[in-house]
Design goal:
With 224 residues, this protein is mainly alpha-helical. The protein folds into two domains: 1-54, Arc Repressor Mutant, subunit A (Orthogonal Bundle), CATH 1.10.10; 58-194. It contains nine helices and no strands. GO terms for molecular function: DNA binding; DNA strand exchange activity. It comes from Mycolicibacterium rhodesiae (strain NBB3). Residues 12-71 form the HTH tetR-type domain.
Length: 224
């Protein structure tokens, strides 16, 4: 790439330079990312950019995913050893909110909207996908705590919406780390515990029903 100090020695280096340019444009804010703007920053032709990315949306998604991978690695390190579901969810959401507050690229993933006010489909999908990856990196044995795929999807959606709420409609007073975790704990802690409680109640109900059926069977046998 002529606008760089030297020609990239690999496709990976070329892609990273392109995404670095996208990141710098996102940090500046303003108009949507365009291939022509990225080419201008790098001092190359648009055709050079198209060699690696088919269009503007692919540039944005590529930049988002690169940023997300770095975040996920930091999250995994931060939550290593957190095995309690409620504690891990609360800490993970608070950590994400703190990280994203200083990352305009990741904030854009959460705040992008279509003219009608709904989330753009690819960004909404990216946000949920990021939430799923967050939960996959936790040290929690979700299945052992009774969370099947449907329960996990519900919890992931709650977590993503909580991060969105904190970033896009923050409290009037800035929250210190302890206050942020107390707030997230009040929102999400009960959701995690509710699922576990209902699972235990369902198990107890099934056990009681089985006991009643067995008692009735014994009574019928005596009458016979």
């Amino acid at each position: 790439m002529t606008g760089s100090r030297h020609t990239p020695t690999s496709d990976e280096e070329a892609v990273n330079r392109i995404l670095d340019a996208v990141d710098s444009l996102v940090a500046e804010g303003g108009s949507p990312i365009r291939v022509s703007d990225v080419a201008r920053v790098l001092g190359v032709s648009r055709q050079t950019i198209y060699r690696y990315f088919p269009g503007s949306e692919a540039l944005v998604v590529g930049s988002q995913m690169r940023s997300a991978n770095g975040f996920l690695d930091r999250l995994a390190d931060h939550l290593r050893g957190w095995t309690n579901p409620a504690a891990a969810v609360v800490e993970g959401v608070a950590f994400a909110a703190e990280e994203f507050a200083d990352d305009p690229l990741m904030t854009r993933v959460l705040e992008a909207r279509l003219p009608g006010g709904t989330s753009a489909s690819f960004t909404a999908g990216a946000a949920f996908g990021l939430g799923r990856e967050m939960f996959r990196r936790y040290d929690v044995d979700w299945a052992a705590h009774g969370f099947d795929d449907a329960a996990m999807d519900d919890l992931i959606e709650l977590a993503v919406r909580t991060v969105q709420s904190i970033l896009l409609d923050p409290p009037e007073r800035p929250l210190n780390p302890v206050a942020l975790r107390n707030l997230v704990g009040r929102w999400l802690g009960p959701a995690v515990l509710y699922h576990q409680l209902t699972r235990d109640i369902d198990a107890l109900t099934a056990l009681t029903h089985a006991s009643q059926m067995a008692s009735r069977a014994r009574g019928s046998a005596k009458l016979a």
